[in-house]
Design a protein that fits this description.
Length: 272
């Protein structure tokens, strides 16, 4: 019987640890095996505790320590809980009054298969310039809309931060304009760690949507990752984003697992 492909065989905790290398907090700490991350509130992944395994044993109690660490940062406590393995922890947090927030689906695929399918689906963009930069320029940052909004001042620092032995690419599709500067049509960010390419921050300008530009970027980044030695690819997509999930399924990505955030109340001394 043939062994499973790497993008299928990997366990959810191992994959979440790899993903944590690609999108980090500006401040981090360990609470047992759990990774605490904070970045002044910009993105859920950079401002939540990554739940890995059972709750850690601490002198004051893991929930007290978790809340206290985020209170010191002026943030509400938040946990990123892989499912189904983290279901017992989620039940504990729900019982403590933490509310559910954002259900995310994690997709995986073979990097060469995804790249080939994306390349086959993309339309001719011969007049566009594709850029893969190690850091985002101002035009890239302006084009990236996190949840449809402009970025906070410290977003660049978060976006450029990555774990050891992690390569970043800030990809963009650009076209010339009559006024001089290039017009940025679409952007995406990729992080390559331990043979896994994670694609995030995919944004297509409103006036250029439904033209296959996101698929074009997927093809370019998959090719870039494969050239760097990448074997597999992962994406994190909101579970209610049906259009994106259908697109990625057509590109050879498969459901691996889910995660959900739980957000706790601010301590009274901080919330008042």
């Amino acid at each position: 019987m043939p062994s499973e492909a790497p993008h299928v065989a990997i366990g959810m905790e191992d994959l979440e640890q790899i993903a944590a290398l690609g999108w980090r907090g500006l401040e981090e700490a360990q609470l047992g095996r759990w990774l605490l991350r904070a970045a002044a509130g910009f993105t859920g992944r950079a401002n939540s505790a990554l739940v890995l395994g059972a709750p850690p044993a601490t002198r004051a109690g893991w929930l007290i320590d978790l809340v206290a660490w985020y209170a010191q940062k002026g943030l509400p406590p938040m946990a990123q809980i892989p499912l189904p393995s983290g279901a017992p922890v989620e039940s504990m947090l729900a019982a403590a009054g933490w509310r559910a927030h954002d259900h995310v689906r994690v997709l995986t695929g073979d990097i060469r298969e995804v790249g080939a399918l994306a390349a086959a689906h993309r339309t001719d963009r011969s007049k566009l310039v594709v850029r893969n930069d190690a850091a985002p320029d101002d035009a890239w940052l302006t084009a990236y809309k996190y949840r449809g909004a402009t970025l906070p001042d410290h977003a660049r620092e978060v976006l450029e931060r990555a774990g050891p032995d992690t390569q970043l690419s800030f990809a963009s599709l650009r076209s010339p304009t009559n006024t001089g500067p290039w017009d940025v049509l679409a952007v995406a960010r990729a992080a390559l760690a331990r043979g896994w390419l994670g694609i995030t921050a995919v944004t297509v300008a409103d006036q250029h949507r439904r033209r296959g530009l996101g698929t074009h970027l997927m093809a370019e980044l998959a090719a870039w990752g494969a050239e760097q030695g990448g074997l597999a690819i992962y994406l994190q997509v909101a579970s209610d984003n049906v259009a994106a999930l259908q697109l990625y399924q057509r590109l050879g990505l498969h459901h691996h697992h889910d995660y959900r955030y739980r957000i706790g109340p601010m301590p009274r001394s901080r919330a008042s």
